[in-house]
N-acetyl-gamma-glutamyl-phosphate reductase (Clostridium luticellarii), 1376 residues
Amino acid sequence: MIQAGIIGGTGYVGAELIRLLSNHSKVKISGVSSVQYNGKSISSIYPGFYGLQEIACESQQEVVEKSDLIFIALPSGLSQSIVENAVYKNKICIDMGADFRFKNEALYKKWYGKTFLKHKLHEQSVYGLPELNREHIRKAQVIGNPGCYATSVELALLPLISEGLIEEEGIIADCKSGVTGSGKNLTESSHFVNCNESFTAYKVANHRHTPEIEETLSSVSKKNVKLTFIPHLLPINRGILSTIYATPKKAIDLERVHEKYREFYKNEYFVKVLPLGEVSKINNVRLSNYCHISLHYDEENNKLIIISCLDNMMKGSAGQGIQNMNIVLGFSEKEGLAALPAVF
Amino acid sequence: MIQAGIIGGTGYVGAELIRLLSNHSKVKISGVSSVQYNGKSISSIYPGFYGLQEIACESQQEVVEKSDLIFIALPSGLSQSIVENAVYKNKICIDMGADFRFKNEALYKKWYGKTFLKHKLHEQSVYGLPELNREHIRKAQVIGNPGCYATSVELALLPLISEGLIEEEGIIADCKSGVTGSGKNLTESSHFVNCNESFTAYKVANHRHTPEIEETLSSVSKKNVKLTFIPHLLPINRGILSTIYATPKKAIDLERVHEKYREFYKNEYFVKVLPLGEVSKINNVRLSNYCHISLHYDEENNKLIIISCLDNMMKGSAGQGIQNMNIVLGFSEKEGLAALPAVF
Amino acid sequence: MIQAGIIGGTGYVGAELIRLLSNHSKVKISGVSSVQYNGKSISSIYPGFYGLQEIACESQQEVVEKSDLIFIALPSGLSQSIVENAVYKNKICIDMGADFRFKNEALYKKWYGKTFLKHKLHEQSVYGLPELNREHIRKAQVIGNPGCYATSVELALLPLISEGLIEEEGIIADCKSGVTGSGKNLTESSHFVNCNESFTAYKVANHRHTPEIEETLSSVSKKNVKLTFIPHLLPINRGILSTIYATPKKAIDLERVHEKYREFYKNEYFVKVLPLGEVSKINNVRLSNYCHISLHYDEENNKLIIISCLDNMMKGSAGQGIQNMNIVLGFSEKEGLAALPAVF
Amino acid sequence: MIQAGIIGGTGYVGAELIRLLSNHSKVKISGVSSVQYNGKSISSIYPGFYGLQEIACESQQEVVEKSDLIFIALPSGLSQSIVENAVYKNKICIDMGADFRFKNEALYKKWYGKTFLKHKLHEQSVYGLPELNREHIRKAQVIGNPGCYATSVELALLPLISEGLIEEEGIIADCKSGVTGSGKNLTESSHFVNCNESFTAYKVANHRHTPEIEETLSSVSKKNVKLTFIPHLLPINRGILSTIYATPKKAIDLERVHEKYREFYKNEYFVKVLPLGEVSKINNVRLSNYCHISLHYDEENNKLIIISCLDNMMKGSAGQGIQNMNIVLGFSEKEGLAALPAVF
């Protein structure tokens, strides 16, 4: 059994990793670290794990020491030194935050206010979107797990961008996420009374996933991909639905575009291109690692509309982390991720 | 006291009209018609009205007869003959459905599959958006109350369209509505388990409010306004939030645009242009007749983002109907509509 | 116009009082105090009030000075000295907290850990349940507005207790409340993700409303009324539903009990005894000041089941405060409270 | 691989069985029947299964023929003849409905209006509560899977009833269930707008699970166990929480009662007796087969309060069906059921 540790195991991403790893047939949780809950059992924080997963939180060093592979689920900026140390000790690192998502330090600095500690680590690290980078992930030692919104927008646009079928500029991504996306911290915006029966946008055209998406898609396109990205907060626990508006360079035949998507994702188990006429819907991917993509065309206005959805804690975070782990360790990609969606 | 009747009083729009009229100081409910519940008390359908509003449903003729003004809250296509008869008897008609929203019969026919029964009625009727047509409403005998999505998009765009500040084509309206918008009927999409904890788009680029919005804005612009409109279903009871993407014809200064909005709506009690930096949010208009508009600019991509929200049963339907009634009857526009939003 | 001030105006009870008073025809809000938001507009805290209610927060003294009547919406223990001062200045006080709900200091001390500062004030104060104490309220200078759960349980049991129809001991009150009941503060239990799609009990058999209910009902019964009271947290914003189990002293005829309830509440506008066969339901009282009561009998086990529901922010708190204000000022009790429930 | 068929596979219980069986390592779904959807793929009804589980619905006969074991998920009254036929063909039957839950035909007839077709089948059938009947289940050919509410109440009371610690009469079970409990059919009470932000009781003291609970507990007690059972509808998809009030025969020590529960369930993987001080909560068992039980004592009133919760689709239905299948087939009881709860 591979020993996998979790640094920062008590936030939502950490807890979801624990939930998934607890049923993984080839990996054992070696340890979980938490500064805040050091010494406490994970079930004292998540009573649903009572009697099932009672591992006690330790220090980061202890966890790194015991592990073959570590997941790092910390606020951005805190992963770099941990990764440096772990790599030195020959551990594989999957960083769930933003520290290893960027190749462009200037972008990282502009949006996150931090610099790269050790450039070589960033050069070697791989952006962990398996549908784009599988072969690189296979050989990576440091993987930057993509952002939740970023995953949903990138998977929706990759087939179009890679073939240059749409204008690279002027793309609009109107995205909606459940509240787990903003984490375990108590904030005004996650207070039940403030989000229940309500809905709003936030960080309008100013969300940190914008540069991540643009960098990833530009690297595929070889052109400068630009998008207006607006996230909204849905009064639900889990799920992201992204409605994306793109302008085809010339008039399209939706059926042909659909075929291209099918072809592009034909070997991708976790991306389902829905039949034409169907619409992606959050409850159809809930609690699963699948991403649904539906395609629509407003011929009158020559707008291609791509609607993608996924579970932000799964394909948008911990599930994708496990998928990356399976790849880097040479397991079947589905291992521990095969559960059907909980459609109700 | 003016006698107001409601034709089709047992659907959600009818019930909301009853709720509002029950506390209107200058109008009395003369009667309520229902084919399905003829003879039954409205409180047997909505037990919350028990002991408060016990009026029994009658036939349409009886209601028209007793009323000075009638609200018609029927599925589209059923209002025309009722209006014809009521006008003949000199009653004022506020049609809550789509039959009198269009001047262009071809559009109406294309999207609703019906023809105009009596063209003169349609010529004389007024589209009941007070912020656009107040003076015409004042003298109208037949008012076509706007659609809920249409109200939210039109109010958001009127200041820009009327000054020609944005490209008239290529506008995108990504709209999200609560479930009351789809009415009282039992459908798969309004089954609790299907929409709770979920979210999806529907009628993608194919919703009947599209031509209504385009016709209204084009009449203001004198140019052909075209938009891609995609509605989504929120797991909440009430509220619409529309995120609208428009391309300024030339680079703009957001503060100046904001001032124009303030100026445009300075005498409009029910439209609140939020301070720059604020974002419209559904719970801030819930159970009220207000429409909130917030303005944002993605300079990088030259996209102006207008976010408007309102309560679909109030400013989006029954509340606006009451506002129109107040105007046509010469009352203060706020009469019966002054309640502050229920912010929680 | 009467000048009414609100001490502690920025919590949920304060905000609901502001919402209601803003549309009261005979009372004007003289001032609102807040330690935390001193100098800030109430609309900066509740943006739904933007452009409608922009009063700025002041000090407690300033508010008391300007007011004929004050509502005090502070955590328990903080009202006594304010009331003492205000009474000295001849103001009427309606305390929304627990400080003036008890006659028995020992009980107050046991459950709230505080003592009575000035016993005479407590002797003169009146427990503000209009259906029980209307005549005393009319002449009161200090009114202790009842707790939300307490109101729902007391109204449900008063007719039975006053006639001695049920065993005074062994009553069970299984109560369920929406999240506004726990206020505006950010807590683990009010984090969206923790209560959405969940449900639990809290303070099991140990909630502070227990002694309030027992003292009130015992004072009516002249016997020692004892109950097991268990509150639960519903994933909704507003509303309390109490399912109460009582043992009739002898076999009963449900229709006769129902008649007694009807008789008991025949002059009470805000208490609706539902027809036999109906069941109280939270959406039927939402956003209104009504209390619905339904009666059921499990003959097999000789248990009378009384189900009452109300909106915890209205009849359970601010609405009842306004009702008490109307009584003490000699207005119609319905003034400002006549809105029909928002049944959806 | 064992071949398992599902008769009535398109309702919620059927769909949940499909979700669980799709990841069971020792069982294959042989077929699914549906009268309504004959010939259609299960993914056309549940689009979340698209690309994952595409089995087409067949006739009941076809499914029985291909299967070693069948689950029957039909409305009550329709299982008996199917079971008779399947038993004749030597298949194992797990009936998810009520037809095989009763030994007492009179009770079944009183509450379900049907008679036993073949008495011998009912005599041989086993009530499928593993914690009570594991040894009988092991050898059964026909298993009556318990009701959801019944499971939650029985597991909560078994330790007390089996030792005679509480009064057998006068037990109160105040139960709350999510909306999946009322199934896939479109009804007024499952319309989103009617249950969202609301809460109510239904079938007050008149629910069909009452006799099931009483029969089961009486068979353990050897005395006549009687309870008042009131179900309520929670605005959530999944989960049941039961608050149960029992009267100890003599004063108790809660710690000793707690120890008895621990002892009683020490070998039961799916029943977790929480530490004293903790309270059962629905999100701690969501999407899992666990039942949480917490214990509380109101010493003042000598009431023992037992709060149990489970996921009504899992331990309350399909999960328990799989558990029974594992037992009867000699597999580990956890097979296919080991997932940790989705605590958010």
